[in-house]
Amino acid sequence: MRQDNLHSIKDDMVAFTEGHGLKRLPGFVGEEVPSVLWDDDNNPDSWKDFVEMAKAAGAPFVTMSEIVLEKEDLELLIEELSDMSFGEDDPDEIEQAQSLVQHVGKVGFLQLGFAHQGVMYLHETSTEWYEHYQQMLESIEDFSDIVLEQQDGDDEEQ
Questions:
Q1: Given phi > 0 = left and psi -120 to 50 = alpha, else beta, which region is 22?
Q2: How far apart are CA 52 and CA 56, in angstroms?
Q3: How far is residue 23's CA from residue 53's CA, in Å, rounded to a whole number?
Q4: Cβ atoms 46, 38 nearer than 8 A
Q5: Domain ranges in the chain?
Q6: Biggest CA pair distance of the chain
Q7: Burial of 123: CB neighbours in 10 Å, binned 0-12, 13-18, 19+
Q8: Which residue, 1, 46, 59, 85, is the most exposed by fewest CB within 10 angstroms?
Q9: pTM confidence score
């Protein structure tokens, strides 16, 4: 069963990492960095194996990042969805976004990472609501890209 707030897992990660003598570097590792994503979705405690792997690899520190759903971010999402709404099926998506208000202030995503031989190894944990939130953000981004491409095409024709 997945949790809907990863705050207690974050606290456990901090204690476990420090218990293994590793320092924590607050930082997020983005997609532009060569990386390998830890893949063990069947084990909810796989992050412990990941920290042990970091220690075995001789990593002096582990990066750690968390994402908390902020009220302002949710309001912006709802506004963006409303702006791109054309009236057909979009009210459902807006309602789904509004239902996320119950998760404001909760930790929805955690990322651990360590560097080894020029590659970042990452372990990511997320809640279902956070994944849905991300999908909505991506749909807005995709829509914006389409609009910009159409505008660029119109400019070239003139």
A1: beta
A2: 6
A3: 14
A4: yes
A5: 7-151
A6: 65
A7: buried
A8: 1
A9: 0.83
114 and 120 Cβ atoms separated by less than 8 Å: yes
Question: Residue 105: CB partners within 8 Å, gap ≥ 6?
Answer: 68, 69, 70, 71
- Name which of 56, 74, 63 is nearest 26 in CA terms: 63
Judge whether 116 and 29 are in contact, CB under 8 Å: no
Query: What average pLDDT score do residues 13-18 get?
Result: 97
Instruction: Give CA–CA dist 100/129, Å, rounded.
Output: 7
Q: Which two tokens stand for residue 34?
A: 């060569």
Q: How far apart are CA 91 and CA 113, in angstroms?
A: 38
Taking only the tens place, the pLDDT of each residue in 65-96 is 999 999 999 999 998 888 776 555 556 888 88
Query: Do the strands 119-126 and 107-116 form a parallel or antiparallel pair, or are they unpaired?
Result: antiparallel
DSSP SS3 for 64? strand
92-102 burial, b for 16+ CB within 10 Å, e for fewer? ebbeebeebee
Residue 127 has pLDDT above 90, yes or no: yes
